[in-house]
Amino acid sequence: MTSAQNKRKLTDDLVERLRDAYPVGPEPVSFPAALSVAKAQAERMTTLAGDILSPTQLLLLTPEIDIHYANDVPVPSASQFNEHTGKWQILIGSDEPREQAYDLLREFKRILDAPDVAFLYDPGSPIGDVQQQLASNYFARVALMPEKDVRRTAEHGITQLEKIATMFEVPPDVAQTRISDLGLTDRIHTD
Fold first, then answer.
1. Does any domain span residue 67?
2. Same domain as 28, residue 10
3. Statement to judge: residues 111 and 149 lie in one domain
4. How confident is the model at residue 75 (pLDDT cuts 50, 70, 90)?
5. How far apart (Å, rounded) are the C-alpha atoms in residues 179 and 184?
6. Which positions fall inside the IrrE N-terminal-like domain (predicted)?
7. Counting Cβ atoms within 10 Å, is residue 24 exposed (0-12), middle (13-18) or buried (19+)?
């Protein structure tokens, strides 16, 4: 099998593979359980990408998603299903690569959630939208900054926040939040 065939096999039905790996329903789940789903999906995506691709590169190769970049839009990112093409579309509004990767993965999580929003988040309530945003942010952080890699970085004495953000190609505030997620704030310096 060629490299191109391997990549195609990897990306075919990525959305369904991640949805099916961690099904939800028929009863709504708690918000902590929704975060667990986000983490499991991000970790599975990272595993699928392996050492060959980053999660962002995996998405760029996924035929069921069209990604458009336009820095003249009033939102950082958006996603929707295009009935005409039968594909999901993601719009990225930033021209900064680290923001683009983060926004791309946040929108991808919204695509993963689309059929299960009412089961994962408080439906019919403004808090449900906030929960979905928080889970999307968490998914992106876990995918871009896998726990074992962040811990290894700290163990090797890399403790400057900006350096860590650069290594993982994420904005500094995203790196700081992920470090906090992992309880490593006492080992990382922000100055």
1. no
2. yes
3. no
4. confident
5. 5
6. 84-180
7. middle
Dihedral sign computed on CA atoms, order 89, 165, 19, 8: positive
Instruction: Look at residue 115 in the predicted model and tell me its pLDDT.
Output: 86
Backbone φ, ψ for residue 159 (5° rounding): -125, 0
- Assess whether 182 and 105 both reside in one domain: no
* Average pLDDT of the residues of the chain: 86
Assigned domain for 132 exists: yes
Half-sphere CA count of 50, side-chain side, radius 13 A: 6
Strands 77-82 and 65-69 turn out to be unpaired
Token look-up 């930033």 returns: 94
Task: Provide the residue range defining the domain that includes 156.
Answer: 145-191
188 contacts 164 by C-beta, under 8 angstroms? yes
Q: Are 136 and 185 within one domain?
A: no
pLDDT recorded at residue 40: 94
Given a contact cutoff of 8 angstroms between Cβ atoms, the answer to whether 110 and 7 are in contact is no
Whether residues 156 and 186 share a domain: the answer is yes
- pLDDT, tens digit, 9 for 90 and up, residues 107-164: 999 999 988 888 888 776 778 889 999 999 999 999 999 999 999 998 998 989 999 9
Q: How many CB atoms lie within 10 A of CB 151?
A: 13
Instruction: Please check whether residues 57 and 105 belong to one and the same domain.
Output: yes
Identify the pLDDT of residue 146: 95
